[in-house]
Amino acid sequence: MGKDKLRRFAEVATFKNVIQLDAGKDYKGKWATKFFANNNPVVLELACGKGEYTVNLAKMFPHINFIGIDYKGNRIWRGAKTALEERIDNVGFLRIQIETILEYFAESEIAEIWITFPDPQPQDSREKKRLTNPTFLEKYKTILEDDGIMHLKTDNDGFYAYTLEQITLLNLPKVKETADLYHSDIVDDVLSIKTYYERKYLADNKNINYVQWRF
């Protein structure tokens, strides 16, 4: 592991806005009151990477709590450091494997879940790793409130098609969908938040897919 990664791992352990592994279990059912010290809604971004979407959502909606989830501490470091430097108090980060999410959040605790540009896991042998696999969807359904919203934003057409297929098979109500976000009539300030990788995709004239649904 490079020196920069080691430094970030060490530094992220000192950040007050980052909770790691088993320590997060103490917040289950109490993220708003115990971590954020308020009663505002809690929104998750899964596989948040550097946390660009999480941080920008938090800036746009100061009366909502946002948690970015990823397993790689050296990635979380960037978003967490930005939030600390800019004194964005309604954002936190949780370093866990997403497979274990039910150990960290209670039933109906979450208002919305964002999945932005996840690894599409294109190999058939890795279907169970896809974040919109039915096993994952069942977990999200558990922690979302009754009218909770799911968002997926991805450049990968195959992963988008796979997700639409799962939504259809499970008879879930779609709210919005487009295979070309920036040439659609649903794009707005929230959907226009761009991560580093999304800017690269757009520079290569790649279309951006988006779907919003409920359980």
From TrEMBL:
Q: Where does S-adenosyl-L-methionine bind?
A: E45, D70, D119
EC number, as in UniProt:
2.1.1.33
Residues that hold substrate according to the record: D155, T195, Y196, Y197, E198
Highest taxon of the lineage:
Bacteria
Pathway field of the UniProt record reads: tRNA modification; N(7)-methylguanine-tRNA biosynthesis
Q: Which reaction does it catalyse?
A: guanosine(46) in tRNA + S-adenosyl-L-methionine = N(7)-methylguanosine(46) in tRNA + S-adenosyl-L-homocysteine
Q: Which Pfam families match?
A: Methyltransf_4
Please name the PROSITE patterns in this protein's record.
Answer: SAM_MT_TRMB
* InterPro entries reported for this sequence: SAM-dependent_MTases_sf, tRNA_(Gua-N-7)_MeTrfase_Trmb, tRNA_methyltr_TrmB_bact
Q: Name one GO molecular function term.
A: tRNA (guanine(46)-N7)-methyltransferase activity
Which enzyme class?
Answer: transferase
Which controlled-vocabulary keywords does the entry list? Methyltransferase, S-adenosyl-L-methionine, Transferase, tRNA processing
Give the function comment from the record: Catalyzes the formation of N(7)-methylguanine at position 46 (m7G46) in tRNA.
Task: Please report which protein family the annotation says this sequence is part of.
Answer: Belongs to the class I-like SAM-binding methyltransferase superfamily. TrmB family.
Official protein name in the record: tRNA (guanine-N(7)-)-methyltransferase
* Lineage, highest ranks first: Bacteria, Pseudomonadati, Bacteroidota, Sphingobacteriia, Sphingobacteriales
